[in-house]
Specification:
3 strands; YaeB-like fold; 3-stranded antiparallel sheet; globular; single chain; 28% helix; 2 helices
């Protein structure tokens, strides 16, 4: 998230950048309550959610497939629009 903040808050970025980062953070915070809501990711064991054109890649441990008894969420990476995934 540090790299995203640095990119979004470059000189002259304005209020829109702040709103974008806040929306991404809200999406990440929402994963606490609904970790299994989003689709499984390209890599085994991951899940993905889109927010403001950014892709948030995360894991749930354990990933039971049910929000009620799923485990902890760890965000692995946030990819910006057009950013290639290795």
């Amino acid at each position: 998230m540090t790299a995203i903040r640095r990119w979004q808050f470059q000189a002259g970025s304005g209020a829109a950048a702040k709103r974008r980062v806040q929306a991404i953070l809200r999406t990440i915070q929402g994963l606490r309550h609904h970790p299994c809501l989003y689709a499984r990711g390209e890599q085994p064991g991951t899940r993905e959610v889109s927010s403001e054109g950014h892709w948030i890649i995360y894991v749930v441990d354990p990933d039971t497939g049910r929000n009620a008894d799923a485990g902890d969420v760890t965000v692995l990476r946030v990819f910006g629009p057009g950013q290639l995934r290795p």
